[in-house]
Specification:
With 148 residues, the protein is an alpha+beta fold. It has 3 helices and 4 strands. A 4-stranded antiparallel beta sheet has the order 2-3-1-4.
Length: 148
């Protein structure tokens, strides 16, 4: 059977439990079509690049699927009918991934950074931001005074 990655975005006002229920519903549709959901990943509530149907954020979920094409078509039909889903995309892939996706790895790295206590963007080679007036300007000439 062919392999697919299916990502859907659910409305921001849904609870995480409701998003998990949607995931289980779509998994059942695949199972009824003689397929299987190999794995699913909840990427969390994330900001969108632009507003979609008055939503600025969405719950992201990815499903790795091993199913025949008719099962995928039925799942996409049900996703399109569901008012809680604002976007979705299904892509056929050559093989199912064996390791977590890049989004999941990214979330793990951010949690590790937070555990260390170092704020994000802390650069030891820059020094404190408050000393900008004290550092030499190099070859640049001084600015002329402003005239208001």
């Amino acid at each position: 059977m062919p392999f697919y990655e299916h990502v859907f975005l659910a409305r921001q006002d849904l609870a995480t439990a409701q998003v998990e229920a949607l995931t289980e519903t779509f998994s059942k549709i695949i199972a009824d079509g003689n397929g299987a959901v190999a794995s699913h990943e909840y990427w969390g509530l994330r900001s969108l690049a632009y507003r979609i149907a008055k939503n600025r954020k969405a719950h992201y979920v990815m499903l790795n699927i091993d199913a025949p094409a008719p099962a995928i078509a039925e799942m996409e039909r049900q996703v399109a009918l569901n008012e809680d889903i604002i976007r979705y995309m299904t892509v056929r892939i050559d093989a199912l991934p064996t390791e977590p996706s890049a989004m999941t790895k990214r979330g793990e790295r951010e949690r590790e950074r937070g555990a260390e206590g170092a704020p994000r963007g802390d650069r030891p080679d820059r020094g404190d931001r408050g000393d900008r007036g004290d550092r030499p300007r190099g070859d640049r000439p001084d600015r002329a005074p402003r005239a208001f």
